[in-house]
Amino acid sequence: MTLPPPLTSLNDLDAQLAGSGYAVLDAASLARLAGVSPAELASWAPMWDDLPPDAFLKDGGRYRRRRHGSFVVEPGAGRVALQAHRAHWQPVEYNALHGGIERWFEPLPPALAEAPAWSRLLCALAARAAVLRGPAPGAEPWFAEAHPFRIDTTDGIGRPTPEGAHRDGVDLVVVILVSRVGIKGAETRVFDARGPQGLRFTLSEPWSALLLDDERVIHESTPIQPLEPAAGGHRDTLVLTFRRGGFQGPG
């Protein structure tokens, strides 16, 4: 048995995110929020079949594939600018397993990074970050990073969050489920960063989304296992982060 996610109506999204530090949208609501069609979102799914292996896993695993892209987003103006390819970096305070090192992943495919629907999605989510954090002088831009992930059962189990329960060091984290194929597990767990309160559920609908106030909550996903060991399985997600003031970096 899996616990269904506590869905939020689109009209209540900002209030739910501000009040509880998290919100979950079904696929139809995410599409309406971004002003895109469900078919446009679904058309991106085949790109997850072409993710290179993650060469930086410190637990020796072979279960993760990913790409990475960076964008500057101005939601008020509707502008999204793809940045020169750069390393993904997190401090050890937020990622004890992989923090403190520059991790160079292959870039996003142009068909995704240059799609009009992609820009609309990033602008819509950056606007939610702006509402969450309050107005900034001069309508400051948001620094977004995109991480398409595939976690598979090559090693028998796959770990969506090998670093454990964590924060990402940003303002807003968005976890979008792309697909679940032949697996069990991947239960999402969200906890108050300052207390014992928490909840758990399983995202199962493709293109449903979990939004997290990264200052207030920590999150993790439990490992996956194949339903049929001989067949294997995988879980595809798109993780988007939004940060005010600049990208994280060693400087």
Task: Summarize the entry for a quick read.
With 251 residues, the protein is an alpha+beta fold. The protein contains five helices and 13 strands.
Describe this structure in words.
- This protein is of the alpha+beta class.
- It has one domain: Jelly Rolls, CATH 2.60.120.
- The chain is 17% helix and 29% strand.
- The protein has five helices and 13 strands.
- The chain has helices at residues 13-20, 27-34, 38-42, 110-113, 116-133; strands spanning 22-25, 64-66, 69-74, 79-82, 142-152, 172-181, 183-185, 188-192, 198-201, 209-213, 217-221, 224-226, 234-244.
- Strands 1, 2, 3, 4, 5, 6, 10 and 13 form an eight-stranded antiparallel β-sheet that branches. A three-stranded antiparallel β-sheet has the order 9-8-11, with no helix packed on it.
- The longest helix is centred in the middle third of the chain and has 18 residues, at 116-133.
CATH homology-level superfamily? q2cbj1_9rhob like domain
Mean pLDDT rating: 94
Largest sheet: 8 strands, antiparallel
Strand content: 25-35%
Radius of gyration, taken over Cα atoms and rounded to an integer in Å? 17 Å
Taken together, the total number of domains comes to: 1
Q: Could you name the key traits of this structure?
A:
alpha+beta, Jelly Rolls, eight-stranded antiparallel beta sheet, three-stranded antiparallel beta sheet, 17% helix
Q: What's the helix and strand layout?
A:
Layout: H1 13-20, E1 22-25, H2 27-34, H3 38-42, E2 64-66, E3 69-74, E4 79-82, H4 110-113, H5 116-133, E5 142-152, E6 172-181, E7 183-185, E8 188-192, E9 198-201, E10 209-213, E11 217-221, E12 224-226, E13 234-244
Antiparallel strand pairs: 1-10, 2-5, 3-4, 3-5, 5-13, 6-10, 6-13, 7-12, 8-9, 8-11
